[in-house]
Specification:
The chain starts with 19 loop residues before the first strand and ends in a 12-residue tail after the last helix. 23% of the residues are buried. It has seven helices and seven strands. The chain is 38% helix and 14% strand. It is α/β, with parallel strands linked by helices. Helix 2 links the parallel strand 4 and strand 5.
Amino acid sequence: MAVVAGYFDFPLVLNLRDQQVVVVGAGTVGRRKLGNLLRAGARIRLVDPCLTASPSCSSRIESIGRAYRQEDLRGARLVFACTDSAAVNGQIVEDARLLGVFSCCSDNLKVGDFSLPAILRRGALQITVSTGGGGSPALAALLRDRLAEQIPDSWGLSVEIMAAVRRKWLTAPPCSQYNQQVLRCFWENQLLPLLDQGKVKDIDQLLQETFGEAFSLAQLQVELPEGMPWGP
């Protein structure tokens, strides 16, 4: 086995649904976190002395209009230190560690426990780009944008279809082996071209011919827009 000098960040996808996340600092950096956290289903506690009202109509955001206190981290699964004070951010990271909570320090990513990658979304499909713990966020964003030019919206729809096929295939009475190689060929050579052309009826027919009559779009509970092109 080759010996690798140094260490690499460990990539991880977290389920934050109904989990408490604390964001300290409601400036530009802090508010950028809110949208992604809300999409992840998190409950957010936003702390900033300048806050006078919630920055969102969402009931999932608790706004606290005062300076940070250690008690603000109670019940948190993740903490984002996003203030304009390096000293305050450092204190937040220290407090989080004492409580066993992972933290992200916006002004010094090496100080905290995790960093956020650049994200490309195509429906349920998420592609992330990291440059070693925030080594160059601008480069990560540039690479993400390059990927965006190559990956059309149809890939996101294909994830929804393939996930539904897999669920039904693994729970239905055994009639054929779940073959990843077959699915890969089906996805790339048959499903994607039809999605790119927006041929919904042909997709329905293809699914039934490939997997059986029980695998129609309706039975898979997948709805696709009729006749819509899905280019990059």
